[in-house]
Design goal:
The chain has helices at residues 17-28, 40-54, 68-72, 74-77, 106-134, 155-174, 194-198, 203-208, 218-229, and strands spanning 8-12, 32-37, 58-62, 87-90, 137-142, 180-187, 190-191, 216-217, 239-242. By secondary structure, it is of the alpha/beta class. It has a single domain (8-187, 217-242), classed as NAD(P)-binding Rossmann-like Domain (Rossmann fold), CATH 3.40.50. The structure holds NADPH dihydro-nicotinamide-adenine-dinucleotide phosphate (NDP). Belongs to the short-chain dehydrogenases/reductases (SDR) family.
Length: 248
């Protein structure tokens, strides 16, 4: 088993849901953390809790994944001791819109593509060469079951997650014969703020997403990420797909 103690993990979208749950698991394992999101107060609160509970070393970066110029400066903006990222978790992401493509605003399309696709791709490019030079690293991309089970109204979101699946699979070939691993984690329905974001404050619509279902929890997905990240050197987990047991 690979120990995560002392490794540096950068987690995007760490202010809630799956990203926050991954931060808790990694902190417990002794990983040094760079936590990124827009809501700085959430990140500060999480940092305090992780420091108090695990004596974790945590840096927070307030960053909008859509701010491409700032994103490109991220590696050099990281403080000493956190610049050599060993584990990159591309988790920040969202779906927007409740009607079909014809009812989806151009702005929402840009937001989904920039956040789910462009930012994730740039971050891999920004950190992969350092990982390859050190012959140590793991890129973990949070995809979705929506990449496989495409649904009406999901044109852009399903498209972005299908990109993540294809991207993850393809770059694994680029890093073959190195100790830089690549994993896609593809959850089914997880109870987080995802649906509240999607339906922009329409809580009834958000809650209806999980009606009649006992959804996955963010901690379940964090367990999967931990599993992938702690395999021995000869084992690379390509993808983990999970569903809520009550999910069709
Ligand atoms: P949440 O809404 O709880 O978390 C999303 C995270 O992404 C937040 O921390 C948010 O931070 C961050 N984020 C969103 N947009 C931006 C941005 N422009 N810049 C920086 N950070 C951003 O949802 P989940 O935890 O469920 O989602 C995490 C990932 O899991 C996503 O990629 C999602 O597609 C995927 N997923 C979720 C499923 C589900 O059912 N919940 C199922 C399958 C996949 P902030 O707002 O502070 O910036």
């Amino acid at each position: 088993m690979t120990s995560l103690a002392g490794q540096v993990a950068l987690i995007t979208g760490a202010s809630s849901g799956i990203g926050e749950a991954i931060a808790w698991k990694f902190a417990e394992a002794g990983t040094k953390l760079v936590l990124i999101a827009r809501r700085s107060e959430r990140l500060s609160s999480l940092k305090s809790q992780l420091t108090e509970k695990f004596n974790a070393q945590v840096e927070t970066v307030t960053l909008d994944m859509q701010d491409t110029p700032k994103l490109k400066q991220l590696p050099s903006a990281l403080p000493d001791g956190f610049q050599q990222v060993d584990i990159l978790v591309n988790n920040a992401g969202l779906a927007l819109g409740k009607s079909g493509l014809q009812g989806t605003s151009l702005e929402d399309i840009e937001t989904m593509v920039n956040t789910n696709v462009l930012a994730a791709s740039l971050l891999v490019r920004l950190f992969c060469n350092g990982m390859l030079e050190r012959n140590r690293g793991h890129i973990i991309n949070i995809s979705s079951i929506a990449a496989k089970q495409r649904y009406p109204g999901g044109g852009i979101y399903c498209g972005t997650k299908s990109y993540i699946d294809a991207f993850t699979e393809a770059i694994r070939h680029d890093f073959v014969n190195s100790q830089v691993k690549v994993t896609a984690v593809s959850p089914g329905a997880v109870q987080t703020e995802f649906s509240n974001v999607r339906y922009k404050g329409d809580d009834a619509a958000a809650n209806a997403t999980y009606e009649g279902m006992q959804p996955l929890l963010a901690a379940d997905i964090a367990d999967q990420v931990m599993y992938a990240a702690t395999r021995p050197a000869n084992v690379q987990i390509g993808e983990i797909v999970s569903f809520a047991t009550t999910q069709a």
